[in-house]
């Protein structure tokens, strides 16, 4: 045994020699004299002769160590007492092998069918609870909101955003203060002279200009809708809009869309499960680079604001935040200049990819369901007769259009797994015990197509939102913005954008699925947000307006 330990010691010594060499190389930029380190160790190693008994002992020792490690992993990957059920867990890997990491949504649905509306999985060594269906999600996020409104703090996305934003802030006073401030500021920008409606209509003019250029031709709406959504929130945040071919906005939108896919992709899953890989040069590093680019651009905008602002006369969100900082001085407020950039980026990100992907899904369905498009247009023509512009209030007279927009949001399922939540204390849900700090994934998909909640859960059909009298009705299970205290902060803005943009465009143009485009593919690309596959639509000017 002594010899055996001795051999291990020599092996370690040999390796540490190699390690100190690599550290040395990295620090000084030139190789150390490795020969001087290796030589005596090699001599020592070669001087040790293993007898068969020693070799057996060494193997036994190694096996013993392996067993202890395996038992530790097994214990770690066991469900705690009375934890929600789930498939058997493999040590180290957890349940990763039973998921398609490129798009696990179908697997999550399959597991719901096997284990019920509340089940658990191990993502590597991490236990995660999935909550499904209207009743369970409402019970957790609304009835027991205080217990379920935290956010996990040890994920790829936390590291990328340096734990300074609003979306991923834990359920604490910092989150509360920033959320209240953002809501208040968004609301203030909806009032006054230059209202939110006017801003949106201003942007719609640019969409129309783009579509006008494509009359009689086909157009891919991807970039146009992304830039339009980005511009609307950019005006609120930074008081600026950018031309659709502007380099800066192209870079920001590219970074956002890429990060939305990276953040839920297989590499970030690996990052979340195994901290050991975090420093390796793997594809998730692209997410850090993208964020850094956006951070620098936003910082420049904030710096510019600091130079040009007139205190007390805010032009946008950034000015409001700086005014608020002046007002509060050093009273212990949780607002800070440093957090401003991260909060602004969060709002920009959250307000761009979501709205634009919903619009893309909307126009994909409207072009391929021409009878629904025509019925919308008949209603729009009738209600807006003689009116120059549609206003958000007109929605009350357009039950069918409202039903179509809501149905688009239901099938678009834009944020399928919400933003991940986390328990803030040891708690219970539906009779199961869930310890503090457990990651909770609200599967919004499972509510938006839940049987029993919808007349037609598995098809695109606006009748899902039409009552017996032909009126617009919104079932409680309509929760694309999630529910509870962490519910989407931009719901009001998003709903206004979707209504004004879709009505204005449908009033002016007819959108046609090109004859040579083959059958439409409605299966979206997976990410934090679901994105329709790229498509083209033919644009025609309508005669009746
Ligand atoms: C169709 C468009 C949108 C959809 C479907 C959507 C959906 C969601 C969902 C599902 C969440 C997660 C809620 C939760 O954790 O339970 C969320 C959070 C959030 N959304 Fe949206 N969103 C949309 C548009 C917007 C817009 C335009 C903004 C910006 C003004 C925005 C800002 C936010 C913020 C800041 C959060 C984090 C709230 C918090 O953690 O307290 N969203 N959104």
Strand and helix layout:
Blueprint (H helix, E strand, L loop, with lengths): L1 H27 L5 H14 L4 H25 L28 H11 L2 E6 L2 E7 H11 L1 H4 L7 H5 L12 H18 L5 H17 L5 E2 L2 H17 L8 H16 L3 H8 L11 H24 L8 H12 L8 H32 L1 H14 L15 H14 L8 E2 L4 E3 L2 E3 L4 E5 L1 H4 L42 H18 E4 L24 E5 L4
Helix pairs in contact: 1-2, 9-10, 9-19, 10-15, 11-13, 13-15, 15-17, 15-19
Q: Would you kindly provide a written description of the structure presented here, covering whatever features stand out?
A:
The structure is a single chain. This protein is an alpha+beta fold. The radius of gyration is 28 Å and the shape is globular. Helices cover 53% and strands 7% of the residues. The longest helix has 32 residues, at 337-368. It folds into two domains: 1-76, no CATH class; 156-541, Orthogonal Bundle (Cytochrome p450). The chain starts with a helix and ends with a strand. Strand 5 and strand 6 form a beta hairpin. It has helices at residues 2-28, 34-47, 52-76, 105-115, 133-143, 145-148, 156-160, 173-190, 196-212, 222-238, 247-262, 266-273, 285-308, 317-328, 337-368, 370-383, 399-412, 445-448, 491-508, and strands at residues 118-123, 126-132, 218-219, 421-422, 427-429, 432-434, 439-443, 509-512, 537-541. The structure holds protoporphyrin IX containing FE (HEM). Residues 166-167, 179, 233, 346-347, 350-351, 354-355, 358, 414-415, 418-419, 480-482, 486-490, 493-494 line the site of protoporphyrin IX containing FE.
